[in-house]
Specification:
Layout: E1 4-7, H1 12-27, E2 45-49, H2 56-69, E3 72-76, H3 80-90, E4 96-98, E5 114-116, E6 125-127, H4 135-144, E7 180-185, E8 191-195
Parallel strand pairs: 1-2, 1-4, 2-3, 4-6
Antiparallel strand pairs: 5-6, 7-8
Length: 217
């Protein structure tokens, strides 16, 4: 177990991966595992690579995840290659990292379930348990099991990056005529209107290839 870790950033895909991983540990009767050779002392080792411009909502959800799932999470606010280099320095026993990449993600098309890192990158095996899952599979899993998720997904965000390159998905925009819904009349007889959210929640999207329409990169 000390040789395994999980890349976790609070997003929907790695959240599903985390739940699957925890289930696998539970099924095998595995709990806390001591690892005196590194700074980590639990079976649920995680690496969080923070975006250069993180959403406060994502940061809050990651912090909640640490408490809910008892994660031994190390955080790095730097580019991915440098972050993984530092992580392997801090957790030298790690040989493989589970990643929530899927086929429709950038650079995911030709990945296998087990892939060594590319030349010039810190050396470990990338494990992709959900590589063949579809977008709707991810949300069906989360909603069927009633798993708490980041609130941004209820605001129309379907793929989370940073505040400078991530927006609500335009494919989930509501029509203008549906923005207002009537409420009770006030004491003067006027009908109050409460604005509906401008975007439908992420789980209403169905097309894999529309998932990243809200991302600039």
């Amino acid at each position: 177990m000390p040789e395994l870790s999980l890349a976790y950033n609070g997003g929907k895909d790695c959240l599903v991966l985390l739940i699957l991983y925890l289930f696998a540990l539970h099924k095998r009767g595995l709990a806390q595992v001591s690892n005196p050779s590194s700074k980590i002392d639990t079976a649920v080792q995680c690496c969080y690579i923070q975006d250069a411009h993180p959403f406060p909502e994502v940061e809050e959800f990651v912090a909640k995840s640490i408490k809910i799932y008892s994660l031994a999470l190390l955080e790095y606010a730097k580019p991915m290659k440098a972050a993984f280099h530092d992580y392997l320095q801090d957790a030298p026993s790690v040989k493989a990292i589970l990643v929530g990449t899927r086929r429709t993600d950038p650079h995911g098309e030709h990945l296998k379930h087990f892939d060594p890192t590319d030349k010039g990158w810190p050396v470990f095996v990338r494990v992709h348990p959900v590589i063949d899952w579809h977008y709707v599979d991810i949300w069906t899993f989360i909603r069927y099991l009633n798993i708490p998720y980041c609130v941004l997904y209820d605001m129309g965000y379907t793929s989370l990056g940073g505040t400078t390159d991530t927006h609500p998905n335009p494919a989930l925009a509501r029509q203008a005529s549906a923005q207002q819904v009537p409420q009770n009349k006030d004491m003067n007889g006027a009908t109050n209107g409460v604005a509906k959210p401008k975007f439908r929640p992420a789980y209403e999207l169905v097309d894999d290839y529309e998932e990243r329409l809200g991302r600039d990169r």
